[in-house]
Write a structure and sequence with these properties.
Layout (H helix, E strand, L loop, with lengths): L5 E5 L9 H12 L6 E6 L5 E7 L4 E7 L16 E4 L1 H8 L7 H4 L6
Parallel strand pairs: 1-2
Antiparallel strand pairs: 1-5, 2-3, 3-4
Length: 112
């Protein structure tokens, strides 16, 4: 298994033709360094495809996911920080196309 200690979401869209090297260059441009056991998540402008870049301490892993219908819920790039931290639960919801930003609200049922 690939260990991921921290997950980062890139708010700015990227061309999905980008491979691991170009994604790594973007991470280094923003952070200055790609940390081992960190995952970096990117999406295309339409929000229908995502790529995950993971540095495992020895090399890079790059995985892609595409939705056949609908879009991934992605933050707006206006006024957003270039990379946002995600919890494991938020990542799990995001890759399924669920409203990951609202997870705390969805964890409990209240009376309206």
């Amino acid at each position: 298994m690939i260990r991921i200690d921290a997950m980062w979401l890139a708010a700015e869209p990227i061309d999905m033709r980008a491979g691991a090297e170009r994604l790594l260059a973007r991470v280094v441009q923003v952070f200055g360094v790609a940390q081992a056991h960190h995952g970096y998540l990117f999406a295309n402008a339409r929000g229908t495809r995502i790529k995950l870049l993971v540095h495992d301490g020895f090399g890079l892993w790059c995985a892609a996911r595409r939705l056949n219908a609908g879009r991934f819920i992605w933050p707006s790039t206006t006024g957003a920080t270039p990379l946002l931290s995600l919890t494991a639960a938020q990542f799990d919801a995001l890759v399924l196309g669920l409203p990951w930003q609202r997870l705390p609200e969805l964890c409990s049922i209240t009376r309206a």
